[in-house]
Amino acid sequence: MGGIPPIADAPALCQLGVAELRSLYRRGELSPVQVTREVLQHVDRVQERFNAFSFTDHERALDMARASEARWRKGSPASPVDGVPTTIKDLLWVAGSVVRYGSLGTDAKPCAEDAPSVARLRAGGAIFVGITTSPELGWKAVTDSNAFGITRNPWAPAMTCGGSSGGAAVAAATGAGVLHLGTDGGGSIRIPASFCGIVGLKPTFGTVPAYPASAFGTVAHIGPMARSVDDAAAMLRAMSGRDLRDWAQGWMHAAPQPLHDGELAKARIGYWTTPPSGALCPEVGAAVEFAVSQLRAAGARVERVDLPGEDLHRMFQAHWFASAAHRLAGISAAEQSGMDAGLRQVASAGARISAPDLVAQQIGRAHFAAAMDRLLTEFDFLVSPAASILPFSAGLEVPQDSGLSRWTEWAGFSYPINLSQQPACVLPCARRPMDAPSHALPIGLQIIGARGADYRVLSIAREIERLGLEQLFAQSHSREVPR
Fold first, then answer.
1. How far apart are CA 340 and CA 471, in angstroms?
2. How far apart are CA 19 and CA 29, in angstroms?
3. How far apart are the first and last CA of the chain?
């Protein structure tokens, strides 16, 4: 039902996951250099078709691969991700590489140092095969920019891949790397994970250290994107931990843990179906309803819930728009004139928010987030759609003729969890067929846990992954859901 997965036409070496690569490297049946060469060739093909990368440096990647190969030959890999092809989003510093934040108005000089998450991956031996696309300054939940153009959905190239970690999601879905570093300030990992049919985790805030501090403040998280829960967990372990450059991280973070089974059958799950902004698309709702029926069949106790708090849409926009205003305040009017018109509009709206109003929204956020913490003592997890709508035409911020004006209006299942900072994992649960038999549009399920429960969330996500929801949905829906 609904299309051939984009990974299907990737070379066999590009389809391997972390555990498979590690096993083959250990036995000497494969080398990081072989894999990196194959992946880099595939990266070029993916770039030509979908525009997922802002920069690549083949020689630098091969140098990293040769160093990894030497460690494996000595039997002393740096970590479980040593030799694993990895991409970095164009919002995170990579020493020696140009990072433009999706903008022509930023510094084109190579970075002098790594961001903490990048440094930890580098120390673990991950091989950086490219920097993936982002909209300008990561401001919206789709991926296009004046600097790098439109990044397209590999399931249906006329459609958006989501954003702002859109290039990372496309790279993951197509096999252009195994591990993909994304950021999420309002859904920027989870929305493209849903639209591209991959796994994406927004960890508990502070689990992955951030430096320099995000212009979007404490709604902005850093997390892994991959084709499987196990790979996302391996990446999270590799880049988590305390970094004294990140004051907002605080002293507490979730210690890396193994994944374990048994969460699903005993879980108390709250089922959230009403977003604070926008309407739930019936096709998405039907797919997620089917997924939830399978969770019940697996033994979970499921009860419908609503989120606490009022006017979360206004609350999030106050935080986001004010942050955009601050970010653009340091850019000259001449440089701003060439920037994304939507970004300039939200920054202008943010500049009009008064200090008392912004503080009132920050206090409201604290009340909402505390209520979310209490809700997640009543339930082990919450589940919801990952996004309220299906992918729409690439190059647009909102679906055409939808009556919506800003991406925040259709991202109501993601941004509340940035305000409350809980971990949230998205994985595919269904595919909606399109008119063309070779195309389909993925639909994602979101799993939310208590702060600090990142590995519990990943554990239940792995159990759900093993249910094979996409295949079960296809078998139970032999004809397309009416449009």
1. 40
2. 14
3. 16
pLDDT at 437 over 80: no
Place of tokens 């940035």: 418
Residues in the chain: 483
Q: Residue 482 pLDDT more than 70?
A: no
Q: 3-class secondary structure for the chain?
A: CCCCCHHHHCCHHHHCCHHHHHHHHHHCCCCHHHHHHHHHHHHHHHHHHHCCEEECCHHHHHHHHHHHHHHHHCCCCCCCCCCCEEEEECCCCCECCCCCCCCCCCCCCCECCCCHHHHHHHHCCCEEEEEECCCHHHCCCCCEECCCEECEECCEEEEECCCCCHHHHHHHHHCCCCEEEEEECCCCCHHHHHHHCCEEEECCCCCCCCCCCCCCHHHCEEEEEECCHHHHHHHHHHHCCCCCCCHHHCCCCCCCCCCCCCCCCCCEEEEECCCCCCCCCHHHHHHHHHHHHHHHHCCCEEEEECCCCCCHHHHHHHHHHHHHHHHHHCCCHHHHCCCCHHHHHHHHHHHCCCHHHHHHHHHHHHHHHHHHHHHHHHCCEEEEECCCCCCCECCCCCCCCCCCCCHHHCCCCCHHHHHHCCCEEEEEEEEEECCCCCCEEEEEEEEECCCCCHHHHHHHHHHHHHHCHHHHHHHHCCCCCCC
- The owner of tokens 């030509």 is 48
Q: What pLDDT is recorded for position 479?
A: 52
Pick the closest to residue 419 from 123, 221, 143 (CA basis).
221
Q: Which of 49-58, 83-92, 130-139, 325-334 has the lowest mean pLDDT?
A: 325-334
| 25 has pLDDT over 50 | yes
Q: Is the pLDDT of residue 271 over 90?
A: yes
Would you state the pLDDT for residue 1? 46
Q: Which residues are catalytic?
A: 89, 164, 188
Residue 141 has pLDDT above 60, yes or no: yes
Q: What is the pLDDT of residue 478?
A: 64
Dump pLDDT digits (tens) for 320-352: 999 999 999 989 999 999 999 999 999 999 999
- Read off the pLDDT band of 477 (50, 70, 90): confident
